[in-house]
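Hey, can you fold this one?
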Amino acid sequence: MKEKGYLFLPDNFDTFTVEECIDHLNVEFVRWSDLTRSVDQVQSSVSLTEVQEHLSHYPVDQLVVILPPTSVSMMEVTVPTKKTRQLKQALPFIVEEQSAQDPDSLLLVSDYKPEGNQLNVITLDKTLLEKTLSIFRSLNIDVDDVYSVEQLLPTLEQQLLIATDDDMAFVSHPRSKPIYLPIKQLPWVLKKFVAQAETDDSLLNIKLVISESSTHSYADLQEMIEVALPEGQAVDFYSDKIPDLYSYLVSFAGTASNQSSYFQSLLVGSYKPKKQSNQWWNVLAPTLVFGSVVLCCHLALTLYSGWQYQQKANELQSQIYSTVKKAIPNARLEKLQSDRALRSKIKSTLSSGSGSTASAQLNSVTSDIITALVTLSKESKGKAQQPYVQRLSYRAATGETQLELHANSFAQVDNFKEKLVGAGYQVTVGSVTNDGGLFKGRIILAKEG
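Sure. Predicted structure:
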């Protein structure tokens, strides 16, 4: 799968009829490419007919509809057992007892994997989902998955994420399910999170993300947060500016491993899309099975040779990354700056997308990346894992360099960003994940001016 389309419905869409939605509803549409692992296109405030026309010319492999948070309820219920079969049978009665809602009118979605005796459950009014699907059926648009906005929010380990867009905020915390609320309610939520902390004096790490359309400044939001925290509470802020909140959420959804208990499609049971049957399948199936057997035999005979070719391909692809990783730990800045082989490999990797191997821009980017890496290496002296970069690419059309930084901490990713900002770059930090203590940050940089 290479291309995905994410279509965000507005908060008031449930107040319109199907016909009114088609004629008057404006939505946000974001395209994601699995090939480049990035957002390809953002269309803001477009009509559904415009989306239909766009998809007819530029189809996607998977279309995901995102419901507003006001349409979906995300809750925790107490369950008496962990057995999946028994949970599926008892869940409607548990929801009815603990939420006073009629389970017959609700679509219940869960992974049936409780933590202790608490089970995450997503509830959605069936008539609202049927109406949503009717809108797209009327436009002859196939919908593959349906999510709530809150499901796209990541859960960052040991870090509180606050993403704001004008007067609303999305909040995600390791010890709580993601929520969507007015900014004015942030103090109440923060007090709840601090109360759940393991120790009263534990450091609270907050990643504060503000979209360009937000009317609030970093200073105003930080002051609001600090006032809400208990006196003496230690807090570290990591700030970031993003073009828009929708593409920011899609970047998390596109790179998600889908292991989160909340990251499940709301199209289940009878609502799950049915694949169109192919009348030729019964004829071709025996032929395909026989061909597969022959192919497997052939692959088995050439397995060792194929493995060698694959190893060689992996070696060529990762040569630049392993070189940087090996050169950084015990190298001095002066030595790296004079290491022509290392500089040549970095520049060669960057220039593969530029069409030019000797531009002043590539020379400058190469030197600045090496300088920033060496500085981080000195700061992490004595640690088993030294910082290094992967997935280097340079786009001549935009003058942007993309890379993935592997570091020992989120602060080190932030320091790397600051080093490059100090070198005169515009730096955008996309997603930062913690993989067993290894922090991976996706970074895009472009020379200012």
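Confidence is low (pLDDT under 50) at residues 323-337. Let me know if you want another pass with a different chain boundary.
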